[in-house]
Amino acid sequence: MTFSPATLIAKKRDGGEHHPTEIHALIEGFQDGSLADYQMTAWLMAVYLNGLSDGEMTALTKAMLHSGRVLNPRRRNGAPRIDKHSTGGVGDKISLPLAAIAAACGLHVPMISGRGLGHTGGTLDKLESIPGYDTQLSIQAFERTVAKCGASIIGQTTDIAPADKRIYALRDVTGTVACRPLIVASILSKKLAAALDGLVLDVKVGRGAFMKDRASASALAKSLVQVSTKLGTPAVARLTRMEEPLGRTIGNALEVRESIEILRGEGPMDTTELTLTLASEMLLLAKVCHSRSHAMRVARAALTSGAALERFAQMVELHGGNARVVERTALLPKTRFQVPVHAPQKGFVQHVDALALALLALELGAGRKRAEDKVDHAVGLEIFVQVGDRIEKGDLVAKIHTRKHDPHHSRAVLQAIGVGAQRVERPPLLVGRAIR
Ligand code: URA
Prior knowledge:
Number of strands: 13
Strand order of the largest sheet: 1-4-5-13
Order of helices and strands: HHHHEHEHHEHHEHEEHHHHEEHEEEHEE
Distance between the termini: 37 Å
Bound molecules: uracil
Radius of gyration: 22 Å
Strand content: 15-25%
Largest sheet: 4 strands, mixed
Number of helices: 16
Shape: globular
Oligomer: single chain
Structural class: alpha/beta
């Protein structure tokens, strides 16, 4: 390493700005062992406290991206490679139907996804509830799948952004996860490794998201778009509300079932519309469509014609999964108990607390409390009410899919669903305009 680690740490501690060569040296030194884990941890804390300038953030993303393999796809067939990334929410299954819709519209979607993080669900855990689905394809098989059916969803391989993997593990145990520049570099170093022509970012905001308020979500969205674009991948971000769970289900197999329902045109209206909006952003970014209304029509046609459902089945099959789940969702894992929860009083639904329901789903086994925990794909929650709904005493408001009956769980569901006499309007999922 050409710079002394202690000097670089002290520079950031004292609020100085690094030259890109210094950031490059930090990541290179971390990779070759000349900068120890404890030194990286000290630097990360200095960044947490003092931040990074736009230039530093871009240099860090670039260095982390090039710490590993950057794909060089040969068989593009002229199709633009466009991906979507969500910053993480509750019941957020959108990647599944979205990848299939975009593929049916002629895009290539090489999606490198993650597992559940904290209380938020992960796309890989959801897909692994499909019997046989392999999320660990080799890069060659991944590219073959993209070329054949237009979409493939896999996990981060060991050679994609390895610096991020190690840095994330340090951040996770040293209180430095919730830091905008570090989040930007972490997300983009993985996503840009897929050699994209465009990236759509769904930045979640609210109680069920990592970004709890609009100002911090907006700042994250702007930084993600700016750094991605600077590094040669045009990007667009949408802010979406994450106060209530997205759609009707939380839990892996349940969310796959709901994704298939969306692809069959039987999904909840607002989740379907959000999926189509994000698909239209992908089509606009790819310059396949030139107006928002045209892009929405093209995306909707892929859904209503059944072409997107067919793409999803093809993708599942190419990953070794049982594609018959598309016709028979009963083939997905199920729990023995499905406990109904009824409304104790009439009124209007005031709120549905995404975070409380996500923590309950975690308690049931739908996610991991520790990295080594095994996920139970069958457990989860179905929520049948949304903010603004009028309900009567005794109405079915939720169903708990569980291995063991526990009255505490029903009470937790009812506590998360606030009911009152006041009529309320449900706010739209999309917050503000697209950030480019
Ligand atoms: N997701 C990531 O991949 N990295 C972060 O730092 C936060 C969310």
